Amino acid sequence: MGALTQSWVAHSPKLKGQTKRYKKFSIAKYGEEKAFALAVQAREVFVAELGEVGNFHHRAARKTMRALATRSSSALEA
Predict the structure, then answer these.
(1) Does the pLDDT at position 61 exceed 70?
(2) Which of 6, 9, 10, 69 is the most buried (most CB within 10 A)?
(3) Which residue intervals of 11-78 are DSSP H helices?
């Protein structure tokens, strides 16, 4: 078994007939903040590729928005 690693993962929305895609960003390689930012950016690209189709689940949207708000307020306090 390999060593455990921590990373942020961006998943593409799954459309009928397509395989699910994802990109992982290692916290050890990029650091917590940079890995998170890269994952958010990759997710935005995945969603943009959908064009007019739209397939963004509410729960995922709320969770992402809360995470971004928390990160923003933490950065302002620093």
Answers:
(1) no
(2) 10
(3) 27-30, 32-50, 58-77
pLDDT tens profile 30-51 = 999 999 999 999 998 888 887 7
| Spatial separation of the C-alpha atoms in residues 61 and 13, rounded to whole Å | 12
Distance CA 72, CA 65 (A): 10
Residue with tokens 């993962």: 9
Average pLDDT of the chain?
A: 79
Q: What range does the domain containing 73 cover? A: 7-77
Domain assignment of residue 61, yes or no: yes
Q: Tell if the pTM clears 0.85, that is, is over it.
A: no
Quick check: helix, strand or coil at residue 5? coil
